Amino acid sequence: MASFETLRWRNGRLEMIDQRALPAQCTYLPFDSAQAVADGIRTMVVRGAPAIGCAAAYGVALEARRLKDAAPEVFRAGLERAFEALAQSRPTAVNLFWALGRLREKLAGLDGADQDAVASALLEEAHAMREEDVRLNRLMGGHGAALLPDGARVLTHCNAGALATAGHGTALGVIRSAITGGKKVSVYANETRPFLQGARLTVWELAQDGIPVTLIADVSAGHLMRRGEIDAVIVGADRVAANGDVANKIGTYSVAVLAQRHGIPFYVACPLSTIDLSIASGADIPIEERGIEEVTGYGGTRWAPEGVSVRNPVFDVTPAALVTALVTEKGVVTAPDRDKIRRLFP
Ligand code: MRU
User: 20 to 30 Å CA-CA from 300: which of 1, 15, 126, 276?
Assistant: First the structure.
């Protein structure tokens, strides 16, 4: 288990590590409304698909607590606005919409209950989702650990660790579980331009737990693979389509192509809540484009000339054909396709 909590409930508020400040500072920011949580998601205080889902669930619960003494129509309208604001915060990670759907279902089941009881039940549900996320990550880790040979040098892209979830992590959870199980595993972390989730977050979180990690520039991955210095790739996912196509952090597709070229297994670890059966293929997954300042510079330093034309798509889609196996809480699915994915669901 990682030695920090990405999200925690303290004194009637949600607290989240401000991931924008890592690794220089590890500070918690407090949140007491849905709008504040939505802003926190949009501005990357919290990021990573399962962590965003948990944060959104707390966002709805916080709003219900904030408005529980208001008139019924104010309470209802406020909750509706909360769902809306949270749904607008980021488009690609389906866990956000999955979490909001689960809270909506919970709310529907509370028809007739007084507002105090509704607020308590929504908060209980948010707590349950956070605990469940850690439990499922551990299950996933156990299944995926078997894929990594002793001594494996594993490349990962972005941050799919405890910081991207409620704890343990998906891709990094598999690595954590392999190490806990007695294997010697070391990690190569792609820096992950432009937002540097690899350089800032993955390296920090692995170092906290004493897991050996080497940071590389994204462009070094092919070189190391050609020299036989990478044994496996494992990444997380933001949304997996019904046919097994995987949307994940921009640059994942390039890593998958390189892995195939060099005969290196390419694994994707994600909970079932990341699989979107309503989306037939990766072509239909909405891909977020963020501000150009993430590409023209970093942290207030600008390196690109003023006026240059810039695009900043922050996710890409890796076709299922490049995925050696999908690791979920239900087990490992090799060569994932529509039928195998369908069978994961009751
Ligand atoms: O833009 P981010 O940092 O939210 O993107 C995160 C990723 O792409 C992760 O790899 C993905 O959410 C999996 S997290 C377990």
Answer: 15
Is the pTM here over 0.90, yes or no? yes
| pLDDT digit string, tens, across residues 280-313 | 999 999 999 999 999 999 989 999 999 999 999 9
Residue 238 annotated as catalytic: yes
Half-sphere exposure of 201 (CA within 13 A, CB side): 29
CATH 3.30.450.40 fits 147-342, yes or no: no
Question: Is the beta carbon of 249 within 6 A of some atom in ligand 1?
Answer: yes
**Which atom, in ligand 1's list, is nearest to the CA of 236?**
13
CA 248 to ligand 1 center in whole angstroms: 6
Tens digits of residue pLDDT in 215-242 = 999 999 999 999 999 999 999 999 999 9
What is the fold, at CATH topology level, of the domain defined by 7-137?
Answer: Four Helix Bundle (Hemerythrin (Met), subunit A) (1.20.120)
Strand 266-269 versus strand 232-235 pairing type: parallel
Is the C-beta atom of 279 inside 6 A of ligand 1? no
Quick check: CB of 48 below 6 Å from ligand 1? yes
